[in-house]
Amino acid sequence: MSEGDEQLRALMARYQGGSLEAFQEIYAQLAPGVRRYLSHLTSGSEIADTRGIWWKLAAGAIGVGLLSEIMIILRAKLPQQLIVPRDYAEVQLQKLNAVGVIADPLFKDYLLAFELTSVLLLVAIAGAVVLGRRERVAGAR
Amino acid sequence: MLAESLFFTAALFIIGVIGVLIHRNAIIIFMCVELMLTAVNLTFVAFSRYYGAAGQVFVVFVMTVSAAEAAVGLAIIIAIFRHRQTVDLKNINLLRG
Known about the structure:
The complex is a heterodimer.
Chain A: H1 3-14, H2 20-42, H3 53-75, H4 88-109, H5 111-132
Chain B: H1 2-22, H2 26-51, H3 54-84
Helix pairs in contact in B: 1-2, 2-3
């Protein structure tokens, strides 16, 4: 634990009640670190890149948008046909056992998809080998 | 319980999206894509508790596809590194308009 951490903890213990000046003091403690992180993001260090500040703002805006979308969905009411009895999973579990619950749809309903993924894996392995192969220098063994 | 899991997976997905958008190292972008796939997998598992185990079956497929993608993607990164001695995407802009 660093010294700054200790200081911050002592500060928070001192102002347990939570007044405005306590908040300001804690913010003053934290601000240099936050500012350093922000400048680290925007300057030419290894995390920063050729994309300018606008790209980063756009990324942040997309993040906020996705998060708000999730919040809206969480507050929305589900359509009736999507609502399944509450113990649906347990009933299935009783009927088919733990292995059967997974294996039954995997090898019956989705058998074609299962076989296709095996072909996909084979093609991916072949592609990886072809791409990753070291080209042999002419003449050398 | 479902709401918390969904919030967690959404946060994970958003971390992945932001990582893909702000980083320039190909391998870090790759890791962030995997993070997004993992978030989707966790969403499937969270829903499967309520809607039956078909979601968990889908997780198997998603993991298979992500494994294939990881194999091919890492091979492509190795090929790019051999060709240009860097995986920094700011140097790889041949298709830029």
